[in-house]
């Protein structure tokens, strides 16, 4: 497994960057995890849009899905010019009517996922768990060759995120709030909560993402380290992690 950070911002992208999007690659598959604002321009620095097989959507907030819709136009043009050879598969849950917009003629095929779904892309296994967020949101676990990569999606502290992230080799976790925000804001994790979950779950490598647009974001890593003594990385555009 190879994971490339395409976008690491929450809400909206900073200049020249993207909101939530990650590229996961195996020997035979190229998969986007979420596709937020700015993702389409950024991902093309690493791969052709025609070579992406699937998109997995955690939830339907715009900072996670905004660029799916221009991507649909891309697939139509690529099909009609002979560049794309098969439809783009877009996986999302049905707890929102937005699911109905994922299908786009014969170019994009929508497929349902929920907490009971198991996807197999050759040797890559993908499972899901519901988390706590104002919009229904799924965390994702990717397993291959005895290694696991977990993406939190957007979530508050809840049993769903604790359960799915146990013993993760890489835990890509949203870190939207500083410790001083605890109790003031809802829908996301504070740095201390991320550290607590990671410490409790014997996470091997923690990667922080979905950053706020206020404060000094490097403080998030420092606050996480008060609770978690393992390896901590800050997501940034183009950074690569391999398992």
| Through-space gap between termini | 5 Å
Considering the protein shown, what is the CATH homologous superfamily?
Ribonuclease Z/Hydroxyacylglutathione hydrolase-like
Compute the gyration radius: what is it?
17 Å
Strand tally is 14
Q: Uncertain segments of ≥5 residues (pLDDT<50)?
A: none
The CATH topology: Metallo-beta-lactamase, Chain A
Organism: Clostridium grantii DSM 8605
GO molecular function, one term: 3'-tRNA processing endoribonuclease activity
Protein name: Ribonuclease BN, tRNA processing enzyme
Domain Metallo-beta-lactamase: 18-210
Secondary structure: elements and pairs:
Layout lengths: L1 E6 L13 E5 L4 E4 L5 H5 L10 E3 L5 H4 L2 H13 L7 E5 L15 E5 L5 E4 L2 E8 L5 E8 L2 E5 L7 H6 L5 E5 L16 H10 L4 E5 L8 H8 L5 E4 L5 E3 L1
């Amino acid at each position: 497994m190879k994971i490339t950070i395409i976008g690491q911002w929450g809400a909206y992208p900073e200049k020249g960057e993207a909101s939530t999007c990650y590229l996961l690659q195996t020997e035979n598959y190229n998969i986007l995890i979420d596709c937020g604002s700015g993702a389409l321009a950024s991902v093309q620095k690493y791969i052709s849009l025609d070579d992406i097989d699937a998109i997995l959507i955690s939830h339907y907030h715009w900072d996670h899905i905004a660029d799916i819709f221009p991507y649909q136009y891309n697939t139509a043009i690529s099909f009609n010019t002979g560049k794309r050879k098969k439809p783009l598969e877009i996986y999302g849950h049905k707890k929102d009517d937005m699911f109905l917009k994922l299908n786009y003629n014969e170019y994009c095929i929508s497929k349902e996922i929920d907490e009971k779904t198991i996807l197999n892309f050759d040797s890559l296994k993908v499972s899901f768990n519901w988390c706590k967020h104002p919009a229904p949101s799924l965390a994702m676990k990717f397993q291959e060759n005895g290694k696991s990569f977990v993406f939190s999606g957007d979530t508050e502290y809840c049993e769903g995120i604790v359960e799915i992230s146990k013993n993760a080799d890489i835990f890509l976790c949203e870190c939207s709030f500083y410790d001083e925000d605890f109790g003031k804001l809802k829908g996301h994790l504070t740095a201390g909560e991320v550290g607590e979950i990671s410490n409790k779950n014997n996470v091997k490598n923690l990667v922080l993402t979905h950053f706020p647009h206020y404060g000094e974001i490097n403080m998030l890593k420092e606050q996480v380290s008060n609770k978690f003594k393992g390896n901590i990385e800050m997501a940034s555009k183009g950074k690569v992690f391999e398992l």
